[in-house]
Amino acid sequence: MVAKKRSSKQKDSEKMVEELKEQLEDAFLAGLGAFSNAQKAGEKTFETLVKEGEKFRKKTTRKTESLIDDVRDAIREMTDDAQSKASGLLDQVRDKSSLDKLNEAFDKRIADAMDRLRMPTKKDMDAINRKLNKIEKLLEEKRTTVAKKAAPKQAAASKQKTSVKKTAPRQAA
């Protein structure tokens, strides 16, 4: 009986080893299948990523081109604004020269009216003042020269008067 028990135990253990061997082989084959699926899925995933990348590039290119167009439009608007402002400034400068011409015409008419009334202009008054200044300067120079010439004569005359008083006889009273 002991031999019978061993053989049945042996058979059971052999059976268990066989089952374990089959399970290990199945697990190994399942792993190989999973690896094969991962490779296939990896290729598909890679291709999907490439396609997504192309879509993304097209999308961003469209957005970038749209932004570039917007910037160009903004630059055009700023350029147009600057040109209109420059034109406005040129018009103002031109109007200023017209205003200057109008002022000149007005001044000329006033000068003509004053000339008809025989009123002296500022220019005439300035010329008269310059002549008067010259005359005053000449008169001052004459006074100084006369005073210089007269000073020695007066000194001599005052000396004579003092000496005449001393030498003159006294009258008795």
List the helices and strands and how they pair.
Elements: H1 2-116, H2 122-167
Concise synopsis of the structure shown:
The protein has 173 residues and is an all-alpha fold.
Write down the secondary-structure element order: HH
Average pLDDT number: 80
Give the overall form. Answer: rod-shaped
> Which stretches of 5+ consecutive residues score pLDDT under 50?
none
Question: Total number of helical segments?
Answer: 2
Rg, alpha carbons: 64 Å
Structural class: mainly alpha
Helix content: over 70%
Number of strands: 0
Q: How big a fraction of the residues is strand? A: under 5%
Distance between the termini: 210 Å
Q: Main β-sheet: number of strands, strand sense, barrel status? A: none
Report what the structure shows.
It is a single chain. By secondary structure, the chain is mostly helical. The protein has a domain at 121-155. The chain is built from 2 helices and no strands. The termini are far apart.
Describe the structure using short key phrases.
173 residues, 2 helices
